[in-house]
Every structure is written in structure tokens, then in C-alpha cells.
Write a structure and sequence with these properties.
This protein has 425 residues and is α+β, with helices and mostly antiparallel strands. 40% of the residues lie in helices and 23% in strands. A hairpin with a 6-residue loop joins strand 2 and strand 3. The structure holds a DNA duplex (18 and 18 nucleotides).
DNA sequence: TCTGGGGTCCTAGGACCC
DNA sequence: TCTGGGGTCCTAGGACCC
């Protein structure tokens, strides 16, 4: 048996932990730039606020304080998540961290265990030590555990549901709308409803050939999982990412190349840092930019360009490549609303092929990056960054006074069109 | 009129997840 | 006025190989 455990309204619950006065209040958590709603407490859901609602659509509710809105704080949520996962590990060592707020727990080694009681204990423990309410669903496959979790959340006062017999499977499938099945998204929901499939149970009545033809092998896996046959194995140890992406929607559009280049450089540096964190190097760098897709008055422009690089995790190399790609797709006279950098073709850093042209720099870059990472990690924030990233008011001062009191090191790496400098904490 | 057979690799697009 | 960010997998089709 597997359990799916997830934090109820996770981001909203995290905010609540630190402000108990918010209990029973309608609260929402907003995206980057406070653009849309990305999490809601039950009370906010009851007000009819949907996921993804643009914030401006509920600004009256916020102004009247009927809804309390928070800007997102992902550092906090990540920390809460780690602590929550740690508690899960007290119940079984075999866990798969599936997302920031949920994990699959493998209980197949526990033959004599009272799962229902285990779920209740787990819930109580997380609530006590972390302060986050969780729901626990048990099932013989991950897909059924997901369904059990939904039932736990919706109908069970103790937050725990167990699907462990053929009778319970059938009952659970019949009470689960097709769009609540893990693996069935918007498109397939529409398609299936068109074929008179309303519930998970209806779906399991479809012929395999029909599912295979219209929904690929994944659809078939979902059907088997719903019937109790494991097709989606546990992933106990996270694989290294195959692509890493950093992108932002801008609060204010950017139209000049320089402004955009600074943003792109920041994204590239972030990608580079994430690459180093997981010990990978990238062979491909993609840059994309787009204007406001909601703007009906002006023509929409979106483009991307991918450059091949010698496998690297150096911020310097990646910033340089990203800026080159940007030059190719940048068009003057447009107001850009969103931009991003994607690094892919990732390989383990240790497998990196030495190239004739850059092996001189690899060692230098490596030491520089290590030093920068150490400084930034120990400070907890970005105290060292590249001048190409811009947005650094001290840059001008540092240029004028390389040895000013708040500057302990000033390094101008002209050949990379970038600067590195270190500010005293 | 009629034009082999078998394979790999890569990419874009479309589906899904949180 | 104001609309998120970060991933994965599968498939079809094209390029290319012998």
C-alpha cells in the first residue's frame, strides 16, 4: 500500500503558521509580482475565488479585508516543506517527495500495520510539530492513493482515507469525477466527457485499444492503476533535472535591449547557480522573450533562440551565451512583458568534455563560481552578482571608488563583458 | 500505373503534473 | 491599469544511415 500525503492549501497554511490570528480567515497567496492567486484557504475557496484568478479581479475583497492577501515567500514554503518531509520519514524510510507539498509513502513492507491509525498519527504529528494540516490517502497504487487523498480531504473529518479492497476501489472510482483523476487534464476531460465518461469508474470501462489510440500509453497506465495494478513505480531518489528554467513576467514592460539583457543575465546566472547545485553542466541555452499576450491593441511578438555551448555551469559563460541569443531575437520598439532562460542538454559536471577553446578557463571559472556560491550561501542572500545583471546601485559607486569602504574586492573581467565585485556584509 | 526494408536520432508540439 | 513559474513524458515526422 502507498500513501499520498499532502499539505492542505499548503502556501496559505504556511502563512497561517506564523500568524494564528489568520485562522478561519479567508487568505490567498499571490504569484510573482502579485499577479494571480496561487493558493487559497478553504474560506477563500468558499468565497468562490478560483486558482489562477488575476489579483485585480478580487481587489475589492482585499480592500475590504474580506480576503487577506500575501505575496509569495518561496524560501519559507521550501523550508516548511523540508521539515514536513522529515516527519514523513519517521513513518517509513521509503518516500518519494513528489512536489513541494506532497509525498508518496511506501508502506508495502509493513504487513501488520494499522494504516488508518498510522495516517491519523502522521497527521497529528505534522500538525503538532509543523503546524500544517495534511490529508492522507492510502491505496494499492499511486493513482488510487491520490484518489483516496481527495476523498480524505473532501469527506473525512480525520483527514485519512483508505482504499484497500475491490469493493472500496469500485466505490471510490464511482464517486470520483474524471477530471479529478491523476493524469487526466483539461483536454482529456473534455474528450472523455464527449464519450460519456463522467467518473473514474466510467473510464475503467473503456476498451484498452480506444484508450491507447487516443491517450497514448499513459492513459493505459492510468486505467491499470485505477484497477489496482501498479504501473507507476516509486521514485525514491530524485533524478537530476533534465532542464532548468528561470523566467519572469515583468511588473513593468521592458523595451530597451539593455534592460532586457540585464534581466536575461540575472536569469542565466540563476540557472547557472541551480546547475551547480545539482552538479550538472548545460550544453544548450535557450532564451525566450514575449510581449504582453493580453494586450489586444499591439501585435504580439514571441520568439526564442537556442545556442549550443561547451557544457558549462559557469555563470560567466551562460550569461554570455544568453546575451548572444537575446541579440538574435530582440526586436526594437516592442514592450516586453516576459522573458526567460532555459538550460538543457544537461550532463553530470564530471563528464564534461574539455574543449580546445575553453579549457584554460574551466579551472578559473570553477574556483570563481565556488567562491561566489560560498559567499552567497553563507550570507543567505545574493551579496555577489555580475554587473551584467544590473540593478545594482552600488555599481556606479564601485566604478568610481574601487576601494571604497564597502568594497573589499573589485574584479573587472572585461573579456567576459562582466564585472564581479564583493561587498562587505 | 508500378519505386525496399529496417533502423536511429532529433525536434516540435501537445499532453500532463504541481 | 492589473493576468505565475517550473517541470516531465510521449508521439509524429523529418533527416539520416546502411
Amino acid at each position: 500500500m502507498y500513501a499520498l500525503v499532502d499539505g492542505n492549501n499548503f502556501y496559505a497554511s504556511c502563512e497561517r503558521v506564523f500568524n494564528p490570528a489568520l485562522r478561519h480567515k479567508a487568505i490567498v497567496v499571490l504569484s510573482n509580482n502579485d499577479g494571480i492567486i496561487i493558493a487559497r484557504s478553504n474560506e477563500a475557496k468558499a468565497l468562490g475565488i478560483k486558482m489562477g484568478t488575476p489579483t485585480f479581479e478580487i481587489k475589492d475583497l482585499i480592500a475590504r479585508q474580506e480576503v487577506i492577501a500575501f505575496s509569495s515567500n518561496f524560501a519559507l514554503y521550501g523550508d516548511m516543506s523540508r521539515r514536513m518531509m522529515h516527519i514523513f520519514e519517521d513513518f517509513t524510510p521509503d518516500i518519494e517527495v513528489y512536489s513541494i507539498d506532497e509525498a508518496f509513502l511506501d508502506f508495502s513492507g509493513f504487513k501488520q500495520i494499522d494504516l488508518k491509525q498510522t495516517g491519523i498519527d502522521l497527521r497529528r504529528k505534522v500538525l503538532k510539530y509543523i503546524g500544517i494540516p495534511v490529508s492522507v490517502g492510502f491505496g494499492p497504487t499511486k493513482t488510487l492513493a491520490k484518489i483516496a487523498n481527495r476523498i480524505a480531504k473532501k469527506y473525512m473529518k480525520n483527514g485519512v482515507a483508505l482504499i484497500d479492497t475491490p469493493e472500496k476501489i469500485e466505490k471510490a472510482l464511482k464517486m470520483t469525477p474524471i477530471d479529478d483523476v491523476w493524469g487526466i487534464g483539461r483536454r482529456y476531460t473534455r474528450f472523455l466527457q464527449h464519450h460519456q465518461v463522467q467518473t473514474a469508474w466510467d473510464f475503467t470501462r473503456l476498451p484498452d485499444a480506444f484508450i491507447r489510440k487516443n491517450m497514448s500509453v499513459n492513459g493505459l497506465r492510468t486505467k491499470q492503476e485505477l484497477l489496482g495494478t501498479v504501473c507507476i513505480p516509486m521514485a525514491y531518489h530524485p533524478e537530476p533535472r533534465k532542464a532548468i528554467r528561470t523566467a519572469r513576467t515583468f511588473a513593468q514592460t521592458k523595451s530597451s535591449y539593455d534592460e532586457l539583457a540585464e534581466a536575461i543575465s540575472t536569469f542565466a546566472a540563476t540557472c547557472a547557480r541551480k546547475l551547480r547545485e545539482q552538479g550538472s553542466a548545460a550544453n544548450l541555452v535557450t532564451v525566450f522573450i514575449r510581449t504582453n499576450k493580453f494586450d489586444k491593441k499591439n501585435p504580439y511578438y514571441a520568439n526564442n533562440f537556442t545556442l549550443q555551448v561547451n557544457a558549462t555551469s559557469s555563470s560567466i559563460n551562460l550569461i554570455k551565451a544568453a546575451k548572444t541569443a537575446l541579440q538574435i531575437i530582440f526586436k526594437k520598439g516592442l514592450n516586453y512583458k516576459k522573458a526567460g532562460v532555459l538550460v538543457s542538454g544537461l550532463i553530470p559536471e564530471t563528464h564534461r568534455q574539455l574543449s580546445l577553446f575553453d579549457d584554460q578557463n574551466i579551472v578559473k571559472h570553477k574556483r570563481l563560481m565556488q567562491t561566489i556560491d560560498q559567499l552567497n550561501n553563507s550570507a543567505g542572500v545574493s551579496v555577489v552578482k555580475f554587473a551584467a545583471e544590473g540593478n545594482f546601485p552600488l555599481l556606479q559607486a564601485a566604478k568610481k571608488h574601487p576601494a571604497s569602504s564597502n568594497t573589499i574586492c573589485w574584479y573587472n573581467a572585461k573579456q567576459y563583458q562582466s564585472y564581479v565585485y564583493v561587498i562587505k556584509k
